[in-house]
Structure formats: C-alpha cells, structure tokens
Design goal:
About 35% of the residues lie in helices and about 30% in strands. By secondary structure, it is of the alpha/beta class.
C-alpha cells in the first residue's frame, strides 16, 4: 500500500484515541505561541489554511483570533471529530498535495507536524500545491521532527504503522525550492516528547 494511504488509514482507525492523547500531553501554551508568531508575519485579517488540521484545535484557535481560516485533513475521521468539537470552524477532507482551492487563495499556511507524514520524495508535491494556493510572498509555517531517517513507525499508543520523515534544518532548506526559510525555532523535547523544529518560510516570487 502507498505510504501516505496506509498512514491515512491508520489515522482513521486511531483518530479518537490520538486526539485524546495529544490533548493530554504536550505544552499547548508553547504551540499557541507559535501560532501567534505566525500571525505576526501575516497581514491584518489574513486568510489561512491549516494543513493537516487533525481534530481542529489550531483551526479553531485561529478562528477565535478573527482569522479567516479553513482546516483540511486527509483523514475523514479526523475531520468528523473536528466538525463535532468545533462546529463554528470550517473543515474539509483533503490531501495536502491536491486541494480544491483556487490559486492565490491564502495569505498563509500552517502545517503543524503534517508534512512529516509524507515520504521525502513526495515533499515537493505538497510544496508545489501550497505554493499554488498562497498569494505571492505568502508565508508557510511548518514543524517537523529533527533527525535524518524516514519510514514506518508504530507508537506505544497503537500498532498501526504510520510513515514519518525526519529532517535537519539544513536538509529541509535543501528540499524546499519554492519557499525560503527566514526564521526557525527549536521546540524543546520536553514540550511534545520529540525534538521539533518550527520554520517560517516565504514563497519565492
């Protein structure tokens, strides 16, 4: 089975448990700090897409900040949970690599730990689509696990394999061709249990 499809199927199966676990763990305050930092790089009244929105927490946080935001996720179960938890926010089932939005729809894109579920060979497909749907000079904020490997993994939570790609910051800079990273911030491992890096990149025009 295709790595992305196998990962999507896994998230459909573990969605409820996964969302509960991620709500209980990690430092939400730090994560929201990263969201607020992203807004500082965007114009007032921005249009934002939350790529890989999961249960919709980030989408709803941005909406409450008066952001025109929509959350997408390739997992139908995740979107079902998001719609139930946050009926005031907008959610669509969609693959990051192929969305329904017209060119230049958004000022910014937020991709929290979602690009990491793509094989490195598929990252450029997602980058091209994000580049297409953000306006000239648009900003992409994304986070990834620090490392150099990729492949299927199982977690202590379940036995369903999901695909993960790890990057170093220098490696990520080499992979991106349409966006230029202009800022980054390391997330302490104690916050989420992994060594994450948050990056902000501007669309090359």
């Amino acid at each position: 089975m295709d790595p992305v499809e196998k990962t999507r199927a896994a998230y459909d199966k573990i969605a409820e448990e996964y969302c509960k676990k991620t709500e209980e763990e990690g430092d939400r305050a730090f994560h929201e700090k990263m969201l607020d930092k992203t807004l500082n790089y965007l114009p007032s009244d921005p249009r934002v897409i939350d790529l890989g929105c999961g249960d919709g927490r980030d989408t709803d946080y941005l909406r409450k900040k008066d952001v025109d935001v929509v959350g997408i996720d390739f997992s139908k179960k995740m979107i079902s949970i998001a719609r139930e938890k946050y009926p005031g926010s907008s959610f669509i089932v969609s693959d990051i690599r192929d969305t329904v939005f017209p060119d230049d729809t958004f000022h910014g894109a937020w991709a929290s730990a979602s690009l990491i579920n793509l094989p490195k060979s598929k990252l450029s497909h997602a980058e091209k689509e994000i580049y297409r749907i953000v306006e000239p000079g648009g900003v992409l904020c994304f986070s990834f696990k620090k490392g150099e490997r990729e492949g299927f993994e199982t977690s202590v939570m379940d036995e369903h394999e999901r695909y993960y790609s790890y990057y170093t910051l220098d490696e990520m800079k080499e992979y991106l061709t349409l966006f230029e990273i202009f800022d980054s911030e390391r997330c302490p491992e104690k916050v989420f249990g992994y060594d994450f890096i948050y990056c902000w990149a501007k669309a090359r025009r």
